């Protein structure tokens, strides 16, 4: 299986299908994966295959790497639309995440004031007040819920710690609608479980979840790269458009990426 690991603390900028010219920040091990989920579609592979490197960068190393990169890009006039925390797992698990967000905002304001700061997160750490408050300071807290149905969360995301969909939804509500909801749409069979994000029950409950949370934006997307689970299929743009249509009519801002 081919997996994608980011072997630098700061990488890019790369052209993101969702965020434009994106400078990536990896707060996880350079040659391993560290995450509270083990998603069947993760481009970084399975958690068990990423245990050779468990070393996290220090906040000082992150500052030095980001400061150096932003100065270098600014000097040659390279555009940066967003500074994006993603990398090899779940960025909010880094113990210094709140402090890192603080100095990232300071560097952004100084060197790239028009750039956004974005975090792609599975929302498992939102029960930690400091993590939640850090995410509320940035431009784009992109919070993942891949299914409104608990058993499908278990099948798609395979949480490796105590996880409650109800508590996660409650924590997301604390953002008072000022966040982006991200959902992966796929089909397939994994561990004998049939998964279909386009079936009527899932679609109706997902729409109800969007209405309940009322995010400022919704990102719908599907598989784009090789996945660790082998029996997965993309959902077409046309299928996602049909799922989104009633919500768009109600005024929701929904972005779809195939």
What's this, in brief?
The chain is 33% helix and 22% strand.
Set out the fold topology.
Elements: E1 10-16, E2 20-25, H1 59-75, E3 82-85, H2 97-111, E4 116-121, H3 129-137, E5 140-144, H4 150-157, H5 165-173, E6 180-190, E7 193-196, H6 200-213, E8 217-222, E9 232-234, H7 237-249, E10 254-257
Parallel strand pairs: 2-3, 3-4, 4-5, 5-6, 6-8, 8-10
Antiparallel strand pairs: 1-2, 6-7, 6-9
Helix pairs in contact: 1-2, 2-3, 6-7
Structural account:
The structure is a single chain. The model has no long low-confidence stretch (mean pLDDT 92). The protein has 7 helices and 10 strands. Strands 1, 2, 3, 4, 5, 6, 7, 8, 9 and 10 form a 10-stranded mixed sheet that branches. The two termini are 22 Å apart. By secondary structure, the chain is α/β, with parallel strands linked by helices.
Would you list the SSEs in sequence order as H and E?
Answer: EEHEHEHEHHEEHEEHE
Q: Runs with pLDDT <50, length 5+?
A: none
Structural class computed from helices and strand pairing: alpha/beta
Described by the principal axes of the CA atoms, the overall outline is globular
Strand residue percentage:
15-25%
Terminal CA distance:
22 Å
Biggest sheet descriptor: 10 strands, mixed
- The helical percent reads 25-40%
Average per-residue pLDDT, rounded, comes to: 92
Given the structure, what is the number of helices?
7
- What is the radius of gyration? 18 Å
State the total count of DSSP E strands: 10
């Amino acid at each position: 299986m081919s997996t994608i690991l980011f072997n630098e603390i700061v990488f890019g900028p790369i052209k993101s299908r969702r965020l434009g010219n994106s400078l990536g920040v990896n707060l996880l091990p350079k040659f391993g994966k560290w995450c509270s989920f083990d998603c069947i579609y993760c481009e970084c592979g399975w958690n068990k295959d990423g245990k050779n490197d468990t070393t996290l960068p220090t906040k000082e190393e992150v500052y030095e790497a980001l400061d150096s990169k932003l100065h270098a890009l600014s000097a040659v006039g390279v555009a940066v639309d967003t500074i994006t925390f993603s990398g090899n797992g779940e960025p909010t698990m880094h113990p210094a995440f709140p402090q890192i967000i603080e100095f990232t905002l300071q560097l952004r304001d100084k060197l790239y004031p028009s750039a956004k700061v974005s975090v792609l997160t599975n929302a498992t750490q939102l029960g930690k007040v400091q993590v939640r408050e850090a995410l509320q300071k940035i431009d784009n807290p992109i919070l993942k819920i891949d299914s409104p149905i608990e058993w499908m969360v278990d099948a798609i995301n395979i949480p490796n710690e105590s996880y409650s969909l109800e508590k996660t939804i409650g924590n997301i509500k604390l953002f008072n609608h000022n966040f982006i909801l991200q959902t992966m749409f796929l089909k397939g069979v994994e561990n004998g479980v049939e998964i279909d994000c386009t079936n009527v029950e899932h679609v109706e409950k997902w729409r109800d979840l969007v209405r309940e949370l009322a995010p400022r934006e919704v990102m719908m997307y599907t598989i784009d790269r090789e996945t660790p689970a082998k029996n997965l299929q993309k959902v077409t743009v046309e299928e996602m458009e049909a799922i989104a249509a009633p919500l768009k009519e109600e005024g929701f801002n929904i972005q779809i990426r195939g």
